[in-house]
Specification:
The protein has 344 residues and is an alpha/beta fold. The chain has a domain of 227 residues: Vaccinia Virus protein VP39 (Rossmann fold). 27% of the residues lie in helices and 19% in strands. It is built from eight helices and twelve strands. The protein has an eight-stranded mixed β-sheet, with helices on both faces. Strands 7-10 form a two-stranded antiparallel ribbon. Helix 2 crosses helix 3, helix 6 packs across helix 7 and helix 7 runs parallel beside helix 8. It starts with 15 loop residues before the first strand and ends with a helix. It binds S-adenosylmethionine. S-adenosylmethionine binds next to strand 12.
């Protein structure tokens, strides 16, 4: 019998919004083609996005974890080996014991998902606290207002693309005198360090030479202060554009090799006195192929924040959104952002 040949669907073009279910669309995305996934999936039972196939309204928190784990497996397949997943998540309180905890207990939904992801081969590199200076007020009287969400950074392998220099911040402090005599300082510090404590050899050396820290600025740390987004059109669960921009600057290469997809980087820092200069982009491979922009994927695109941030940073993007009304509004927002960019 002659086998039936079914043509595989062509992989989606860059810079498009795919309307429909995240897992189904991700199955059509080419393997090892995405540099970074940045997304905020529906949180457990916090919102109704008005679609029968939506994620987030599962009966219990473990079902929610399983649904997102399935999406994460597609993401893992589509990421280049040096790619990362940036996952913004919020928690909620159980309103029925069947949801996974006693009534009124925090469900620890983000932590449950993070544990499941590490059990599924992901490396959890950061748990960023996104602190909100003006959180939504609540009328509760027996607990504190929750004023943060989490952003997990996960990688597939120990070495991955991460452009820390692109997101460094100005130093605020001056080097204490004791740091100019490194021997004394190090002796007391080492005595207190446990076997898993972080080392600061690089920073100690810089401080010993009279620098307050890295000449390009300090590591922004894992507590990020951003005011929540005011929402866009009918979408009220958007993350801040500035948060998305910081994540993309660090996580998605500005360019990559068109042939092997290895990131291009700005590796060399020339120090002139206390100054440092990032050099121009160069390949990290021997292909001699031209570069193309890095690619950011958001499988839960919502109001399109990831796409707007990516375009402002000259990266390409690919988004999936289940609700066609949200997808249309995101496309409109993108056009507005392009028009503003052209007028500036
Ligand atoms: C938290 S919002 C994303 C907000 C987005 N980060 C922004 O800044 O606008 C989650 C989105 O996922 C969408 N969604 C829910 N279930 C989905 C599914 N199965 N596939 C794709 N999108 C889905 C919802 O419609 C909603 O817009």
């Amino acid at each position: 019998m002659t086998p039936t040949l079914t043509a595989l669907p062509a992989p989606p073009d860059r810079n498009t919004i795919l309307i429909g279910d995240a897992a189904s669309h991700l199955a059509t995305v080419e393997e090892a083609s995405v540099d970074m996934a940045l997304t905020s999936p529906p949180y457990f039972r916090l919102r109704d996005y008005g679609h029968h196939a939506q994620l987030g309204l599962e009966a219990d928190v473990d079902e929610w974890v399983a649904a997102l784990l399935a999406v994460a497996r597609h993401i893992a397949r589509t990421l280049v080996p040096t790619g990362t997943l940036w996952l913004n998540l919020g928690d909620t309180y159980a309103t029925h014991p069947s949801q996974g905890a006693r009534v009124k207990s925090l469900l620890l939904a983000p932590e449950r998902l993070a544990l499941a992801l590490t059990g599924d081969g992901w490396i959890l590199r950061n748990k960023i606290v996104w602190a909100k200076p003006n959180p939504v007020p609540t009328s509760v009287r027996d607990r504190l207002t929750c004023s943060y969400e989490l952003v997990f950074i996960l990688s597939r392998q120990p070495r991955y693309h991460f452009d820390l220099d692109a997101i460094r911040q100005p130093h605020r402090s001056h080097p204490p005198l004791s740091h100019q005599r490194p021997g004394r300082q190090r002796a007391t510090r080492e005595a207190w360090r446990g076997p898993n404590a972080a080392t600061h050899h690089g920073l100690d050396a810089l401080k010993a030479r009279g620098y307050v820290g890295h000449p390009l600025g300090k590591n922004p740390g894992d507590v990020w202060h951003f005011a929540p987004s005011r929402g866009h059109d009918r979408h009220h669960a958007a993350f801040p554009l500035a948060l998305a921009q910081r994540a993309i600057e660090a996580g998605c290469p500005e360019a990559r090799c068109q042939a092997c997809r290895r990131p291009w980087t700005r590796p060399v820092i020339r120090q002139l006195g206390h100054r440092a200069i990032r050099q121009s982009l160069r390949p990290t491979c021997q292909c001699h192929a031209p570069p193309e922009p890095g690619l950011v994927l958001d499988p839960f695109l919502g109001s399109g924040t990831t796409a707007v941030a990516a375009e402002r940073l000259r990266r390409d993007w690919l988004g999936v959104e289940l609700n066609p009304d949200f997808a249309a509004a995101a496309a409109q927002r993108l056009q507005q952002s392009r028009d503003e960019g052209a007028a500036a």
